[in-house]
Write a structure and sequence with these properties.
The longest helix has 19 residues. The protein is an alpha+beta fold and 263 residues long. Helix content is 23%, strand content 25%. The strands form three sheets. It has a six-stranded mixed sheet with strand order 3-4-2-1-14-13. A six-stranded mixed sheet has the order 5-6-7-8-12-9. Helix 3 packs parallel to helix 5. It has six helices and 14 strands. The chain has a single domain, classed as Endonuclease/exonuclease/phosphatase (Deoxyribonuclease I, Chain A), CATH 3.60.10.10. The mean pLDDT is 97. Strand 3 and strand 4 form a beta hairpin.
Amino acid sequence: MPLRIATWNVNSVRQRLDHLARFCERHEPDVLCLQEIKVQTEDFPLEKVQDIGFPHAVIHGQKGYNGVAILSRRRITTPRKEVWCDRDDCRHAAVSVGGIELHNFYVPAGGDVPDPDQNDKFAHKLQFLSEMAAWAKKDKLAERKAVIVGDLNVAPLEHDVWNHKRLRRNVGHTPVEVEHMARLWASGELIDVARYFVPEPEPLYTWWGYRFAQSVAKNYGWRLDHVLVTPPLKKRLKSLEIVRETRSWEKPSDHVPVVLDLK
């Protein structure tokens, strides 16, 4: 049976319920994975997302920061919420749906200084990515039908940012982060689905920052949001779409949805 999975750092679910409804009406995902929901689990607007069409949900939220959610039109099983780096800061949720194992991650952004000795936030980010790689290897993720989605906060390839030479010293695109992402890919034998369909050197972005008002118009983007699958799902890959139009909506998230279609 075909399955459509969307991932979106929504940057506050309660502020963007209208955007969720609009996106879901147009793109009809079977499963919607959200990051940075910025709401406690008990305060998540569950009835409103049910009205949008998602009767099943797993919420891992906290007040004001972080938080992830998996919303599904289809029945889900084995819901779980993992804690990483010994911090329960609500950055992961997983379910089984449609015969696959689905993981939704929100990796720490890492602050502004790309030095783990000077910046605890950057150290946290590197530790998080290291733990993800160790988990993928230890749990033999490559042997299972698994999908990893989310805001991983790393633009790993040269053409995943608007200016590689200028930005390679910026958090999100530094060589050490790229190396950590490569270890994660290798540990799970993961397929980078976006680049499976759109190989380099084609530019590919999912995030345009708020700080520079012309970032969208000038296409100063980064690819921070990812869809990764294990080898058993390679034959089921049908398409992937980056829904850039949402970045032009009124008061948008700085990230846009990424939609995976599985045969």
